[in-house]
Each structure stands twice: as C-alpha cells, then as structure tokens.
Amino acid sequence: MKRHVLLFLLCSQSLFNVVVASPASQTIEHLGKMLYFDPNLSFQRTQSCSTCHSPDLGFVDPRENGVKKMASLGDDGHSIGDRNAPTASYARFIPDFHRTKSGQYVGGQFHDGREKDLKGQAGGPPLNPGEMAMPDKKSVVTRLQENSSYQILFKKHYGDSIFDNTDKAYLAMTQSIEAFEKTDFFAPFDSKYDHYIKGEYQLTTQEDLGMTLFFSKQFTNCNICHQLNKLPSSEFETFSNYEYHNIGTPVNTQLRTANGLGQQHIDHGLLENPRVQDVKQDGKIKVPTLRNIAITGPYMHNGVFKDLRTVILFYNKYNSKNSKRQINPETGENWQKPEVTENLSMKELKTGPALDDKRINALVAFLKTLTDKRYEHLLEAN
To answer: Is the pTM value of this prediction over 0.85?
Structure first.
C-alpha cells in the first residue's frame, strides 16, 4: 500500500513538473487563464472572473441569480448588483478611457469607464464587497501564494521578489488576466457575419436586408454608435464606437426591489466615474459591442429588457407616431420614463424614419449573424 502511495506521489509530481515545464503553460496568457478561472480569489472561494463572465455564454453571467440574469450575485450569496454584467468578449478593442478634443468621453472598462483599461478592470471585482469581496490586496496576494504553480509562474514573469511587494504582486495578477483577455479566445471573429465578409457565407434575404438597414443612416440610427470602422462590411468590426450616451433607459424596478436600493436610487452612469465631474454627462452609459448580442440578454446596462426585439422597438419609439410603438411588449404598458431625464442623445435617437415589423425583424436577423460560431447553438433558445 505504501509503495502504491509513493508511486502515486512520484507520478503526480512528475505530471506537475511536465505541466509547469511545458512552453504553453509558462506564458503570461496561461497564467492569466489560471487566474481567470480561479474561485480561490474570492472571499468564500465560490467565484472567479469566469463566474460573471462565462465563456459558455458570451462572457456574461449565465446564472439566474434570482433576478432573471439582470445582475450578478456576490460571493456572499446574497448581494445583488445594480448593473448587468457586460460581456468580456472583444473587450481588448475598447480604447483606454479618455476625452477627445471635442469633449466626448470614450472607452474605459465597465459601463461607466471607471477603470481605464483591462488590467484595471481585472483588479476591481476581487476587492468589491458586492462581488468577490476580498478585504484588501494583501489578502488576495496571500491567496495567490497558496498555489505553488502561481509561485513559479509569477516569479518567472515578474521576478523572484514579486511577492515581497503587495501592490506589485496585485498588479502582476491583473496584467496576467489582461494578457489572457487579449487572446483570440475572447475575440475569434468567426461569426456568420465574419464569414460573409470573407466570402464564405451567403446572407439570407432577411439578414441582408438587416445589414443594409444597419449600416444606412438613411433608414436607421444603428451605426451612428455601433460602428467603429469607417467603411461598412469591413473586417474586425466590433460594432461600437465606445462613446457614452443617455438613450433614456428606464429604471429596472424589479432589480431595484431585489437588491434593496429602492426606486429612488439613481444610476448616474458616466457621472459615477471618479474622473468625470461634468453634470452634462449624467446618465450616459458606454455604447456596448453588439458581438454576441443575440445570446447575451437581458439588455441595457441594468438588464431591464428581456428580448433583443424589445430593444429595437425601444429605439424605434423615438421616431414612430404609431401609438402601438409606444407600448413595451414585455409589460403591455407604455414605455417608462428615463431614469435620468437630462442629457438624452436626441439627435442620435431621432435619426432615421420609423421602422415597420419587416425591418425590425430583419435587424434582429442581422444581429444574430454577429454570434461567434461556438454560440450559434444558443440562438434557438433566444
């Protein structure tokens, strides 16, 4: 029996040495992958980055959470957030948070851009009391040192003394996660749309109409905010200009009841960003990518709309005089007023004519073509 145990230990150690020694497992990207999926970096050891940004569902939170996926559940098992988890897919293309010469805020991570870049974003959730809930950076670094593989890889990439300085070790962790999030695993560009651009897929009549409508300012307002590259039908389009706009999204009353913030609480959007003091930015939210949009509902920064078609109808209400278009199909009641009534981007919202059902359905069909290949099987459920 002792001999068998000894052999098992020797084999285990040999396997560990092979794993650590293999070139693929020694990269910073692999270290970032290990960290991304590690629940030990949360206080109760129940959550990792992948919990709220799951690769199985477009890098959003797949859990029901008691609020129909509108927001995420914290590591403590009861804290509910106030915003829908944004997708981590294609996040590497979001520019660092900055203000243009014209005064427009652009880029940054989270819905309000409060973190300048991806490594900043990676460092936020572990210390957020409503998320992974670690008390401080030192506690996180202590957890890192529990893992012998981390000990080896951190020292390999960041120096033998990396764990002597808590801030440097924490930064190294975020840089490693950033490196992983910049890999093609998060941005494969292999949707039907991408294959169409390469001449490898023929759009259906409905999808083609939707694409024509999407890229035409004459017919819709979609590409005013959801087009990064100047020319339509170009490769590596992320379908966001990463600007900030207040589009009049209403309060999610169901979520506010569940998380205890109450109906009087106001999400000020960009104004919640500590770098922004301009009251004219109140209520503005960063334009999200439309990559995988068809399978990453519920929608809007607060998850207030369940269906993708509802979102398009919501935009259409600004241009339609048809009384039926002023009804939210998910509630059967009039669209609720904006949470923040000031600073609405009316110029952008009112561009283009009202759309009939045929064109709305065509837009939905086109948006489905932006789904990464590995998620296409999920389209039937959405």
So the answer is: yes
